[in-house]
Hints:
Helix content is about 65%, strand content about 5%. It is mainly alpha-helical. The strands form 2 sheets. It has a two-stranded antiparallel ribbon with strand order 1-2. A two-stranded antiparallel ribbon has the order 3-4. β1 (about 40-45) and β2 form a beta hairpin. α1 (about 10-35) packs antiparallel against α2 (about 50-70), α13 (about 350-355) packs across α14 and α15 (about 405-410) runs antiparallel to α16.
Amino acid sequence: MNPHPDLTIGVIQGLGWLYLLMFFLNVGWTVRSYKRDGHFHRFAGMEHVPRAVIWSVYAALLLLLAATHLTFRSDPDTFLIRLPVVFKNFVDGIIANPVSYFVLSMAVFFAMIWLRRWWVQPTVAWILFNLSVIFLALSMTDFDFRQIVGKPDNVPIVGMLYLVGFFTWLYFYKANENDRRIAEGLPVTEKGQSEQVLVWPDLVYSEMICMVLVSAFLILWGVALPAPLEEPASAVKTPNPSKAPWYFLGLQEMLVYFDPWMAGVVLPSVILVGLMAIPYIDFNRFGNGYYTFNQRKFAVITFLFGFLPLWVAMIVLGTFIRGPNWNMFGLYEYWDVHKLEVLNNVNLSDWFWLDQMKMPLPRPINGDSLATQVFVILKREWLGLLAVAVYLFVLPPLMAVTVFRSFFIRMGFIRYMVLANLVLFMAALPLKMVLRWLFTLKYIVAIPEWFFNI
């Protein structure tokens, strides 16, 4: 008997209920399409065919798929509706490689910005939603994928991804509509929504109803999904991998590329201070109180870049891809605790002194005076310190006279320097990741004598 079956009767029938739910959702979408989408001028040799016929056919296929799953009673190994091995190997080859994973996340982000007027169309968004659900359902036919995604700890993260996708779509949908109205000289949609209601009883009743619904949902969630309780903590038996809560997985991923003081203290502090400073350094008087993209391009792109590729994608990476020994695994790959990957990361000073100068690495000797130790460390790390100084103190003025010239003119020196340093600190994460992947660079500045590494 296979202890790790890709399919069981329970999994097959569970997917059948999911396909049945998708059938009902698409029946509703078919009705909507019939009312709003009009007709084809000519389709399959016939004239004035409702566009909804495509959705009706798709809904019928979902119903047939659901019936096939729900009525199946034979050997699960003979069930043919599953993800092809070739596709799983292809996805694993992309996801398990940090370079291709990051490139893919960046490509999706910039495609989202570039094609914002296309993918926010309700029909296109509904197609993307259906494709994501079909992909998730077919992926559940793989045992290893099911073990990762189906963990009680990870189920909320899957739901979070759909919530992030929905609210991102909602923003761009409303922003595109307002940008169109502004271009036509019309008032934004928020101008027509100036109706005011009283806190009591209108707002309080709405909040109470939401509280009751959320409480009921959480109760059902707690009953249906067992709490992920484990055995009591023990210093002699730690989980492998040992992961932080999902909301800290982005920070834990940053620890791969930065020293703990940088990833756990400096960068989070800069992020919090930067969020508090945004209202005071903002000089754009447009885009306040209504959705827009064209009037807030830099702010929106900067925020979404920090939130989606550098935070949500890092959470996905830490949750579903980081496995035992903190190695990277594909979505359909078995988490083998014996998997070993050779890491040959070097510091910038190692590369300069050992590889280029062919000289031993300068190190202070015990008993040396403080001045001698400082001199030796500065001699060893001068290249890294110079690179950091150029990055933090030379790049901002350079950007002020080139790409950020208009920002510098309108913001002034102090506000511009705050903005420039916030942008540079945010860019430090992808820059350090690229340096690690391309040049196996560990630290730009490595001073273990003082527990100071960058």
